[in-house]
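We close this part of the discussion by returning to an individual protein. In the encoding step, the backbone of a single protein was reduced to a row of integers, each denoting a local shape. The sequence in question and its structure tokens are set out directly beneath this paragraph.
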Amino acid sequence: MKLLLISDTHLPARARVLPPQVWAEVEAADVVVHAGDWVEAGVLDELEARSKRLIGVYGNNDGADLRARLPEIARADLDGLRLAVIHETGSKQGREQRCDAQFPDTDVLVFGHSHIPWDTTTSAGLRLLNPGSPTDRRRQPFCTYQTARVENGTLTGVELHELPRKG
């Protein structure tokens, strides 16, 4: 099972559209995970229409329309892999301990908010992934997203992808 992990698209505030490379990954993915800050419901509509399966949550920049359609925390079983998605996990200081306590029955937690790519495993074995943002790099050198695979209930092949800089 192929996964695409994105977050913090901030459309149309930070970009007019998702980059073509991301849409190609949407088409190739079995599951698209979006960790919040969509900003406009049209992005959700388009991802729902073009994804085989979409798992998403709302973020702090998402209004009432998106909050009515999306949960704060999403959970899914992906062929035995226990996945959770949330927008915000708080400061990087103590993140692993907080997430271990909040998500004890989870194998992988995808989060966003900071626009900073993240990939660590906690002492309890929880994999924490932040794909960054495909549209708003903030202080990062590149806009980013992640891909991964689920094989026999295990997450494999996590890869961070950098998008070409404009102009």
